[in-house]
């Protein structure tokens, strides 16, 4: 089966511009997560979708970040306007429904999108 | 609050030597623990996980980890390192909410360099 895919793999934009990152989870996975790693720091949780609903967005840094998951399939993460401190690697992950037991807590990660804001 | 500590930011090991990466966690409930590896240019790959039961877990690529509740540790080991093991390794604890959803708290990562 196909894994989690993310697009683009790299993005370089100028401060003040807008960027949209896309994530396609593993087919059938209701849970979709976004994480971010700023250079030199740990990978941090941003938010969690269950199907099309935001279950937990406690990690979103500010209102310049907007995540959507229309139809409960792929998700987008838009940064508008981008700031220098938004640079980092954005990871997407997906997992099965909690009703599946422990396996639901296994998260499968995509390759990440490296965002550079200049 | 929950946290994961990987004390070693960088480790250099000779090919064929053994490797141990340390991970300590702070979590109020039964921890669900994971090790991921990120090779250059690649995404995060799951090496192994611990939910319950046998405290010594086997993973892919010849890795194993041991859960020690008394020490709040989940150290990763490999008896003989190969050059392809050069990568960054992340320990994570799954924080489970009252609604049974989970999200990961990661350590800062340990960069492993393998020398000939």
* Multimeric organization: heterodimer
Q: Give the fraction of residues assigned to helices of chain B.
A: under 10%
- Using only CA atoms, what is the Rg of chain B? 14 Å
- How can the largest sheet of chain A be summarized? 7 strands, mixed
Rounded to an integer, what's the Rg of chain A over CA atoms?
A: 14 Å
Structural class of chain A: mainly beta
Q: Total helix count of chain A?
A: 0
Describe the largest sheet of chain B.
Answer: 6 strands, mixed
Order of helices and strands of chain A: EEEEEEEEEEE
- SSE-based structural type of chain B: mainly beta
User: Shape of chain A, please?
Assistant: globular
- Tally of alpha and pi helices of chain B: 0
Q: Return residue spans of chain B where pLDDT drops below 50 for at least 5 consecutive residues.
A: none
Give the end-to-end Cα distance of chain B, rounded to a whole number of Å: 41 Å
Largest interface: A-B, 27 and 28 residues
**What would the average pLDDT of chain B be, to the nearest integer?**
93
Helix share of residues of chain A? under 10%
Mean of pLDDT of chain A: 93
Total strands of chain B: 12
Low-confidence stretches of chain A: none
């Amino acid at each position: 089966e196909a894994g989690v895919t993310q697009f683009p793999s790299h993005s370089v934009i100028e401060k003040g511009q807008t960027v949209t990152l896309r994530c396609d989870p593993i087919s059938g996975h209701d849970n979709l997560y976004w994480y971010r790693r700023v250079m030199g720091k740990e990978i941090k949780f941003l938010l969690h979708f269950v199907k099309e609903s935001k279950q937990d967005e406690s990690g979103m840094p500010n209102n310049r970040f907007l995540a959507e998951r229309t139809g409960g399939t792929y998700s987008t993460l838009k940064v508008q306007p981008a700031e220098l401190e938004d640079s980092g690697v954005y990871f997407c992950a997906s997992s099965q429904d909690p009703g599946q037991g422990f396996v639901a807590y296994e998260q499968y990660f995509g390759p990440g999108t490296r965002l550079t804001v200049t | 609050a929950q946290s994961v500590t990987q004390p070693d930011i960088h480790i250099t090991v000779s090919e064929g030597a053994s490797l141990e990466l340390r991970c300590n966690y702070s979590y109020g409930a039964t921890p669900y623990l994971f090790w991921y590896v990120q090779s250059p240019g690649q995404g995060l790959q799951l090496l192994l996980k611990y939910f319950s039961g046998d405290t010594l877990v086997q993973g892919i690529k010849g890795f194993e980890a041991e859960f020690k509740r008394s020490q709040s540790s989940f150290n990763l080991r490999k008896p003989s390192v190969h050059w392809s093991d050069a990568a960054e390794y992340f320990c994570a604890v799954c924080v489970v909410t009252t609604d049974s959803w989970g999200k990961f708290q990661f350590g800062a990562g340990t960069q492993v360099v393998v020398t000939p």
